[in-house]
Amino acid sequence: MSEAADQIFAMLKQSAQSGAPLYLQLRKSIEDAVNRGLIGPGDALPSERDIASKADISRVTVRKAVQDLVKGGILVQRHGSGTFVAPRMERVEQSLSRLTSFTEDMARRGMAVRSAWLDRGLYAPSPDEMMVLGLSSNELVARVARLRIANDTPLAIERAALSASVLPDPAGIGSSLYAALETTGLRPVRAVQRISAANLGGDDARLLEVPSGIAGLHIERISYLASGKVIEFTRSIYRGDAYDFVAELRLSGPGEEGRP
Ligand code: GLP
């Protein structure tokens, strides 16, 4: 029997007097063992059968407790290899006053960045893209959709749209969209960003490796060239447990109230 199992059973014995339903006692024991660092991120949980036989409870009860903890993001299940304590997210603090790229933000923190391509190509624009990018129906839009990954943790899904005249070869951007725009003198100098709450579900949750229903952030960035022309329209989904957005606020001067 593993050390992790011993830690969990020690916690379970302590809560046995509480009179709470068994699955809740077990759930709490596992949670306490994780919170106290007795079992750490990445540690394997003993098998359902081991827990059930050692604690003398049914496998159904064990499954119910484990499923609850998976839903809450405390444990993760990997098909074929078992159940593990979820990796702890190091939160990224992101300033809202600088126009930087994902690659720059992560590199500044010493994190290794990579992306997985979800889509890249030229398409007929959607009504939203036509409106924001100022495209007509016979022009094309370049779409670049990526899962952005830092230190092997998926942090965001970013779907960028640009006029095809700005980015005729979306497959050729390499690892950074802003670096590619910089080479053609089209890197944005200003952006307006809108952040709203979103519950992550379906494919988004799966890609970001979080339980379905967990909190996330929907971020829309419209960025501009110095001329005022819109260059980028990006809609992103960020993990809510990974980001703190920080803005510095100043008392507005006379006559500035309400100015964006
Ligand atoms: C940020 C922004 C996106 C922008 C991206 C460019 O993440 N939210 O709007 O497209 O940076 O990042 P990179 O240059 O690494 O591709």
Automatic annotation (TrEMBL):
* SMART domains reported in the protein's UniProt record: HTH_GNTR, UTRA
Query: Pfam families annotated for this entry?
Result: GntR, UTRA
Spell out the InterPro entries in the cross-references: Bact_HTH_transcr_reg, Chorismate_lyase_/UTRA_dom_sf, Tscrpt_reg_HTH_GntR, UTRA, WH-like_DNA-bd_sf, WH_DNA-bd_sf
Output the GO biological process annotations, alphabetical, semicolon-separated: negative regulation of DNA-templated transcription
Q: What protein name is recorded for this chain?
A: Phage tail protein
Q: State one molecular function term (GO).
A: DNA binding
The answer to whether keyword Transcription regulation applies is: yes
- Tell me where in this chain the HTH gntR-type domain is found: 20-88
According to the UniProt entry, where is the signal peptide? none
- Keyword vocabulary terms for this entry: DNA-binding, Transcription, Transcription regulation
Query: Does the record bear Transcription in its keywords?
Result: yes
Q: Which Gene3D superfamilies match?
A: Chorismate lyase-like, Winged helix-like DNA-binding domain superfamily/Winged helix DNA-binding domain
